[in-house]
Specification:
mainly alpha
Length: 308
Amino acid sequence: MIKTSFLFILIKYFFFPLILSVFLTLALIKISKKLNISVSLNKDRWHKSPKSNLGGIAIFLSFLVPFLIIEARLKNHFYLLLPFFLIFTLGLLDDFFNLKPSVKLIFQIIAAVMLIHQGFFFSASGTNLIDFSLSLIWIIGITNAFNLIDNMDGLSGGIAFICGLSIFSLFMIQNNSQGTILSLILCASILGFLFFNFPPAKIFMGNSGSYFLGISFSIVSFQVFSNSRTQIIPLILFLFLIFFVPTFDTLFVFIRRTFSNKLFFRGGCDHISHTLVEYGLSERKTVFLLYTVNLISCALAISLNFLI
């Protein structure tokens, strides 16, 4: 696939962005303390002391720098930078100014349409309108799904790392070198941050991080399934299995708030993670349980890849 040693691949595409992510996260923790930048205590967020929410900057930059300077063959994907920057900036502004849900949705739609126009869409039904609608819903849905599960220390980052490894495995199976590189860099960027976000967290990824992870996974989803799943039902099944916890939690919260006559985009302690804690699990055990569930689900998806 990639004509070089496996060790060199790890150093170039994993350890470099990993070290960069660790360094940037540490730097942001120190800068945030010096400038007194932190998220105040909020009943919707289960943290016991104020923490910085700038961790998404470390994830974004540790992905962006290798993307720009390491691999020349990725130059064909530079058109991804505009929607990346748009969504990342949207999340960063939301972290500081708490934007209205309608404003966030408008810019998410703009970024989604940009990606679809650039060729990132599912060809699952054979009907342009259905394919466009499915792709639009997926981009916006998974972008917000990783934001929604960012409600407990280490949860969103850990689930993202597991999903990233699964996507990496599928790219390896497909012998897709560019997809393998992108997913490996993404995993490294997440892991470097996760060292400091695992409970008890020293820093949060903020909306800038969760939005960036969401739109990144929407893009790699299009790549990994662009040439294999031609029918709509298998496609939805595979996406649901790989991103089980984010998608299930989004559906869970949507249904729960709909029946409770609550606005979906309002924060609340009604996620799966909160429910498990209410049933007696500690926050750390809850995070590990959801890791395990998504890991099993991803393993099932990879296994089905050989059967369907």
